[in-house]
Write a structure and sequence with these properties.
It is a single chain. The protein has 236 residues and is α+β, with helices and mostly antiparallel strands. The protein has nine helices and eight strands. The chain has a four-stranded antiparallel sheet with strand order 1-6-3-4, with no helix packed on it. A four-stranded antiparallel sheet has the order 7-2-5-8, covered by helices on one side. Helix 1 packs antiparallel against helix 2 and helix 7 packs across helix 8. The radius of gyration is 20 Å and the shape is elongated. It starts with 5 loop residues before the first strand and ends in an 8-residue tail after the last helix.
Amino acid sequence: MPAGLVFDWHTHRDHQLAWAASGVLTVRTAAAAWVLPPTRALWIPAGLRHETLSAGTSTMRTLYVRPDLCPIIWPDAVPVAASPLLAELIGYLEDPGLDPDRRAHAEAVLVDLLRPVTMTTIDVRLPAEQRARQVAQALTDDPADRRTLAEWGRQVGASERTLARGFVAGAGLAFGRWRARLRLQAALPALAVGQPVGNVARHVGYESASAFVAAFRRETGLTPAAYFRSPPAPPG
């Protein structure tokens, strides 16, 4: 998937397991948005409306599972740990020539490997108010822009208070929190391919790596390194 590719809102008759073998995927539903590094996959139940997009270059691998052949009945999208074994199993099940018995055994193992993990969603909605949306779009194009809301107001012809209300009402967040989430979302594709945290921090507008890591931890509860690390195997 090249940067910017979007699979617009759609549904599937089958359950879907979406995984980024490289890069980062974003999957949105009406309730939330998940930014998925290669250490996480997303179980999307049949019939759930969603869209999938790639901020940077990524490789998407996916499996489809018939609901009548699957014991999983999760009603909503669920992030799961993408262990090396799960990654190998995805590749194995993609083989169209796999005989039915082997496929059935592999799908049973797949169900055992789907281990839900707690994951903070990083949802960045654009405000509806025209001038606030103009600011949001400009920052989406250049997350490193450090202008204050008052400075943006002079450019778009609105007061600081009007713009602040536009972000809270339309995006659900105060402007500072919204911009922090936007910067983190913009940073994820570069972090996923191993770029140094200091370089990524400067690219999205932070003066230091420590400030970026602190903001990342506030939003996700994890450092960037921990966010991309595979979860530990369960005991036993």
